[in-house]
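Long-time lurker, finally posting.

We've been working with Chromo domain-containing protein (Sesamum latifolium) and I want a structural starting point before designing mutants. I don't trust myself to interpret raw outputs, so I'm hoping someone here can both generate the structure tokens and explain anything notable. Sequence follows.
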Amino acid sequence: MKKYADQNRRFIEFNAGDLVMVKVPDPQLSKSSRGRNSRLMQKYVGPLPIMKRIGTVAYRIELPPWWKIHNVFHVSQLKKYSADREDDARNQSSRPQLELTKTKEKVAEAILNHRVTRTAKREHTEYLVKWKGCSSEENTWEQVTNLKAFLPLVEAYHASQAPRTSLSQVEENVKGRPHTRPLDAHSAAQLLNLADQQPSPTDAGLPQS
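Top reply, 14 upvotes:
Generated this for you. Predicted structure of Chromo domain-containing protein:
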């Protein structure tokens, strides 16, 4: 009976790069949640990006390098990330729960790349982080607001991009295509300040989804 029920059930589908909330066993939740009433513990954590689809009903998720759990999840353990939205009735939160701090558990070694991702209400700048003591397979994309403790690395990354920017601009001019200039170190610092000052949808009086 369960086999036929699973066949008739339609699961939501995700694409690589989509942000999702991941349901993990209570023991795997962050240390800050331990010691609380289990009914109040948040069941979903994230947002985390989809890496690829595995088969028909599973996805490989890009997890923080300090999570010692398998990174392939059944689709029933995932839900679409919606910024600044909570489900209090089910003790589930879609607000980001992954805060990066300078501790011996997680130390950024270098910034390798950056990209801009879009949610329904705003854009986010993310950086590809190489973690100290971790292999390149454990590199993760992190939002710029989570890297305040590692701002010198962000600035060093943009400083190293300056020569590449000049070469790419020449190439764009030759091909007749408009050039989009990547962030420099000063712009990155300004972006961090703007992120701190930007009001939430609630503070700004915007309707919440």
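Before you design anything, note these points.
The longest helix spans residues 151-175.
The chain has two domains: 2-93, 108-197.
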